[in-house]
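Translate sequence into structure tokens.
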Amino acid sequence: MKELVVTKAAITSYLQFLKIQEKSKGTLEKYQRELLDLEKYLKGKKVTKEDLLVWKEDLEKRYSPAGVNGRLVAANGFFSYSGRYDLRLKLLKIQKEIFISEEKELTRAEYGRLVRTAEKKGKERLSLLIQTICSTGIRVSELEFITVAAVKRGRAEVNCKGKRRVIFLPARLQKKLKAYAVKKGITEGVIFASKSGRPLHRGNIWAEMKKLCKDAEVSPEKVFPHNLRHLFARIFYSLDKDIAKLADMLGHSHIETTRIYIMESGRIHRQKLERMRLVL
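Result follows.
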């Protein structure tokens, strides 16, 4: 059996393979980040199952079970690609959660404070970006489809993970984005772009959002782009109660994924129990 060393060149080759398999940009970035961490951990040593088990234990000390499993999936895929199936590691067993943690649930009020804080700090682009994600439910990686043409039409045609879907822009958001484009002299292409014209990187968006936490009085644990998508899902479902339609809007292939997005907190569940008044 051939020996294996995790190198930057090998990682690049694997990522190229995944790109050909039409994996999303977000997935490629995530796998690259996590595999480079593994490469740094191993320090050029030949990979052994013993070292990987120690690495897995170290991950369990630093990350949530879901975070650990995400890194193991990336590593297992790399090992399979390299022909070393014997190095694959078992994922952690995670008990299915019934409620979302209140410490991680972004509320509508907190969302409002983030938007207003961004505006007070003169960060108009960030404020509009937050509102765009939360009012449409799109992924950060899909912001590149919010173009001047899409804003004029009032809808964006998104192509992500091999699936195409139409995202409608609420009238108020459409009006705000039109005004912003005129103000900034953006006549074509992506609305949320860097100075070079390229779509904003998720890492930069994440960092900018984190800077709002203190003044907005929102826990940093709640402030990341994907949580805006979850808030959209919960609010939409509370109004429509159609989980199949919501799954289509979010671009999910499986409704079970959508169910995770609309989980309520234990606090909300307790309030419902109290309103039932079944204890005489």
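Note: Residues 25-42 form the longest helix (18 residues).
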